[in-house]
Amino acid sequence: MVSQIVELLKNEIPLEQETVVMSEDSVNGLVLVDIINGFCTVGAGNLAPTEPNSQISEMINESARLARLFCEKNLPVMAFLDSHHPNKPEDPYPPHCIIGSDESNLVPALRWLENEPNVTMRRKDCFDGFLGSIEEDGSNVFVDWVKKNKIKTLVVVGVCTDICVLDFVCSTMSAKNLGLLKPLEKVVVYSNACATFDFPLDVARNTKGALAHPQEFMHHVGLYMAKERGAKIASQVLFGATEKA
């Protein structure tokens, strides 16, 4: 019944995806959002999955594959790591990914990124990596990274599709439209390398302050909203001599 309802809802807001071919003649950047133990490794924390999850597993595998490809080409990669200070809540969620804990570290399949010279790591203590990149002096690590590397196409992957990924994409699209991220031209969300969590209605009803969160549908909604903001939603990301319009 649940899957039928999800399909009905998805039919009301259909999402058209595309194959994105990135030009080898310009700089392409990759952003990995919160692919850390606290959100992806079974039993790793309050917001980690309680059992193996196929959507999360595919997201990790595809993100790792794409990251390898970017590193082999020596292209710029930025990894956001959700890292919170103790006793600083992030409502409506329970404490998670505390700085210094293994929850806030990359999953094992991506830990190798820490030793790659083309990778920039950024710990953030909020949903939105764009806002989480702001320094005390007002500068922005992400904005500087885009400008320094002259990134024209940005590929975004990670978790959660409808929360941290979407928040980051919305801020990035707004900044791009305001001319704050030149020479950035295109933001691509690779759907198979994104994932969100599952929190069924029957469980939410018995959990104080909790909101129901059907995984498959909220993943769809996150991608749909990102496309509404102007991002391209890719079912496949390829490198080629010429870039597909």
TrEMBL record:
Bilayer-spanning residue ranges: none
Domain of life: Eukaryota
A molecular-function term among this protein's GO annotations: nicotinamidase activity
CDD domains, sorted: cysteine_hydrolases
InterPro entries: Isochorismatase-like_dom (IPR000868), Isochorismatase-like_sf (IPR036380), NIC1 (IPR044717)
GO biological process terms held by the UniProt record: pyridine nucleotide salvage
Protein name as annotated: Nicotinamidase 1-like
Organism: Senna tora
